[in-house]
Amino acid sequence: MLNHLREDIAVVFERDPAARNTWEVLTTYPGVHALLLHRVSHWLWSVGLRWLARFGSHIGRFFTGIEIHPGATIGRRVFIDHGMGVVIGETAVINDDCTLYHGVTLGGTSWNKGKRHPTLESGVVIGAGAKVLGPITVGAGAKIGSNAVVVKDVPAGATAVGIPARILDQEKSRQRDETAQKLGFSAYAVGDDHNDPMAKAIHALLDHAAQQDKRLQELSDQLAKLGADVEVDTKVGEAFDVNYLNKIVD
């Protein structure tokens, strides 16, 4: 138990820049308190003291605003940031190194007995207000965007956003990030199905710029094969795109 507590404190310093000292973490972080109380309740649940386990969980919710069913399985170095409104169901499984923000629900979609809550593999991050529902699996290192509603499996390393959640095109996202870095601009946390016209226009420009770079590189390669000494310079195009983006933003 003491080793788990040390890890819980170390994780707060690792993932929350607002944490200043150990005493502050021990006395003012409800996520740490909720996990500590859950370990006691989970042990009571596992030895058959079900009512006492549920009562301990109820006390934990009263003091922290975080409701964790004593039957839920939670691994090591899990961090619940802020925590208010977090709900974790009975058959949920949270593996090591996961992070949950406030308002997250790991809930069920059925009244049937048995496995009905999600499984989070190692290193999953779930944004504020997200709902992950049903006996689904969120793969290792996956990220769930704020307020997303996830009802299907999420592959390892993927990012899911929206209602219902969609898996972002990882290759397209990577290309956009690379192009945006070249242009000195980046639009964050917006999925392909986002309804903001500004975001769609910016994404279209980034995709167009990436496509042009690819075509210019292909042309350069073909000319090089023919023996021509050609060096493609995309700075003019980049400058145009930056100016155009600035006009749109203004």
Structure notes:
The protein has 250 residues and is an alpha/beta fold. The protein folds into 2 domains: 166 residues, Hexapeptide repeat proteins (UDP N-Acetylglucosamine Acyltransferase, domain 1), CATH 2.160.10; 80 residues, no CATH class. Helices cover 44% and strands 13% of the residues. It is built from 7 helices and 15 strands. The strands form 3 sheets. It has a 6-stranded mixed beta sheet with strand order 3-6-9-12-14-15. The protein has a 5-stranded parallel beta sheet with strand order 1-4-7-10-13. A hairpin with a 4-residue loop joins strand 14 and strand 15. Helix 3 packs antiparallel against helix 4 and helix 6 runs antiparallel to helix 7. The radius of gyration is 23 Å and the shape is elongated. The termini are far apart. About 7% of the residues have low confidence.
Helix/strand layout:
Elements (H helix, E strand, L loop, with lengths): L1 H14 L6 H7 L1 H17 L3 H15 L2 E2 L4 E2 L4 E2 L6 E2 L4 E2 L4 E2 L4 E3 L11 E2 L4 E2 L4 E3 L3 E2 L4 E2 L4 E2 L8 E3 L4 E2 L2 H14 L13 H29 L9 H15 L1
Parallel strand pairs: 1-4, 2-5, 3-6, 4-7, 5-8, 6-9, 7-10, 8-11, 9-12, 10-13, 12-14
Antiparallel strand pairs: 14-15
